[in-house]
Amino acid sequence: MTGQDWRGEYLAMVVDCEHRRDLLDDWESTFVDSLRAKFDRALFVPSPNQVAKLEAIWERVTEERPTVTDLHGRQADLF
Prior knowledge:
The chain is mainly alpha-helical. It has helices spanning 5-19, 26-39, 48-62, and strands at 67-69, 75-77. The chain has three helices and two strands; from the N terminus they run αααββ. It has a two-stranded antiparallel ribbon. The radius of gyration is 15 Å and the shape is elongated. The mean pLDDT is 82.
């Protein structure tokens, strides 16, 4: 990635995780909150370990999950 492109990508991953907070455990939720607070400061550069952990969390919470359709046609996660 060039310039600050990485910042937007990682911030988008943080936001995705925030929107799926119900899928995060307590540690992951605290980690995502911590990254968000740091990203809100202009000069934050995540460490390789932070990037790896964020990517692993993001991959898990954004993977497709089986859904079911209820009697009213609404989709819901199967589990």
